[in-house]
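Page 42, continued from yesterday. The earlier attempt failed because a stray header line got pasted into the input along with the sequence. Redoing it now with the clean sequence only.
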Amino acid sequence: MTAPRGKRRLPFRYCEPAFFGGLLDDPVLFLRIRPLRRALLFDCGQIAHLAKRVIKPIQAVFITHAHMDHVMGIPTLVRHHHASPRPLDVFGPAGITERTEHLLMGFDWNLAEPTWFTLRVHEVLPDRILHSSFPGPQGFVRRDDGESPCLDRKIWACPFLTVEAEILDHKLPVLAFRVNERSYFSVEGKRLDEQGLVAGEWIRDLKSRVWKKQAEHRVTATWRRGELLLEEPVDDPEALYESIRGNSETASLGYMTDMGWTADNVETIRNFMGGLTLLCSECTFLAADREKARASHHLTSTDLNTLLESLRPRYLLAMHLSKGYLRRTFDLYAELKPPSGTRILRLPNHIVPAPLGAREVDRWLRPA
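This time it went through. Structure tokens are written below.
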């Protein structure tokens, strides 16, 4: 995924997205959280081509569903994380805990060590989230850790962003995800002047108090009274901040793949994915193959065009095109007709290295 011309990156403040699959490869969206030096991963198909330095910072993985091309990379994640004590969280739809257990139990763990990590799995249902863990020191034997109510769409959060989920239908439950960056502290000079305030070090104290929630910080603002500058304690820092707050427009990212063109799915997507900075969406079939799309519960280019008219993201990354279009990938971009204000980001056909054949390696086994 490439940034728009003339810019080094997409307009995210805290995040840096990278797509580690080509148009025809398994979808793998990597989202680096710059201030934390950690990352999130959306879907986990084939990831053997990812460098270990890419995989190690991953803190949480969000699985849309358990078809092989979306989940088969979990053992690779475990392989790269198991020797670290830092836990790794996996979020997925109904059945993801059982699927993860089967993947892990396909290996022998007789050499497990006390310092190994714990894989924590969170199964997102319509009204609750089921929590389980697989402690590495105990050979990744499953432990059920109860459940929590699902009061809203939010399933994960850190100080810089939140991740929300909605359930769609792909002849089985499949999750769509939305990442929302948090608004940031911003003060507008014009509003300061209107309030008779003078910028100074006290704004840093205000940020610590209202933004970082550090209650021990007392705020003493500087006010202009005629020719005099007066320092006075602020009784209500939150109200003061609202009176001088600048416009801190936030960015958001949507990720959806493998869902049918049904009335319920369309309504859910329109309610969930509006106002995005970047939409990463499957577009598995071209318009002429509508019947194939309906039979397999996927989207066509025409379906995606219809959604774009109402969603109107700033950028679109179409992905997960059927491999049957290997020699026709240019047709996808010809059929996509985004509305004014939406720019298309293009992917190469493949990012995953081509598989090797015997002829490429047999020279290493020939006697000198």
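Notes: Residues 301-311 form the longest helix (11 residues).
Reminder to self: strip header lines before submitting.
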